[in-house]
Specification:
2 domains, 5-stranded mixed sheet, 10 helices
Length: 382
Amino acid sequence: MKADPHPREEERLDRLTAYEILDTLPESEFDNLVALASKITGAPVSLVSLVDRDRQWFKAKKGLEDNQTGLENSICAHGMSQQDIFEIEDTTADHRTADMEIVRATDKPVRFYAGAPLMTEDGLPLGMLCVLDHTPRRLDEDQRFALRVLGDQVMAQLELRRRLRTEITVRRELEDSLAERDLLAREVDHRVKNSLAMVTSFLTMQMRREKNPETKKVLQSAASRVGAISSLHQELYLSSEHGFVSLPQLGERLSTLLRHAAPAGVSLEVEMAPIRVEPAKANAFAVIVNEFITNSFKHAFRGRSSGLVQIVGAQEGRDYRLRLSDDGIGMGEEQDPPAEGLGNRVIMSMARQLGSTPRFGGSREGYSFEIAIRDDIAAETH
């Protein structure tokens, strides 16, 4: 049975369109959430499903080949107006789903559904974070709680994506507005602290419940890493000496934190001349370094047994030139153009806080990012 339209359907669709998320490329931020949803619930299929006017489209998916389906096969359309978890223990016994093709299919039919609504702050549903199984079942309370938390994280990612896009537009129009930059920094700081605290608590809870030693070890490692990032973030904003932060020291701290994620045989080196900057600029530097190194570790050394990622900083006249580089596969056929993807949009946004326009470089010998930090604050040249 096809679900009835939402009472505020046109307003809901306008809001979904405003997020500019439909038909975009896959992004790891969402892929990781559906993978975790399947892991926690034991369901073979998990989706970030966004309900459009005549279809449901999957921003992230696990265990399903289709990118979208018609609304006649959308269980999400029935559940997205719920305020809490929407669960159908046996889809063949529910009049809303019993006649759907996905339920009556002979190969891998959908017999169980549970989803958390993806709700905007003013109560408009965009879709669902859902898990599906091929046999009837029921989630326990911990699994329901986890699905609810992960649904909140999907909305947090959508909001962050929207805010970053808005921020880029605003910054281009208000490049000289220091007050606006400070306001954005405080907003990002607040959200980062809250998100890190919630993720740490969630991972710790799952680690205590997990019986499998290997999975427990992975969760413990993840919790430790998030905790370290949270501590570094707190130190960056509360413990900078005389209101300034040493970028070389911060670079070393970040490198220590990130080295454990390096592929086997890949080294990470830091060679930076002294410079101290304001906390807001240090935060921008930290985000850029994290995004670049994480992307290099993930994409640049596929099929390689060795490699090098470098952070180099040197004084050039009144400017301080920062260069991040790797000697990986470079601009090969599998690599997206520099302007694509949330990671590179984050780098572009943070680069403007450093007072300059970045320059990307790519070849078969590797990939690089360069920016001149405007040295009008507290550079140490001696």
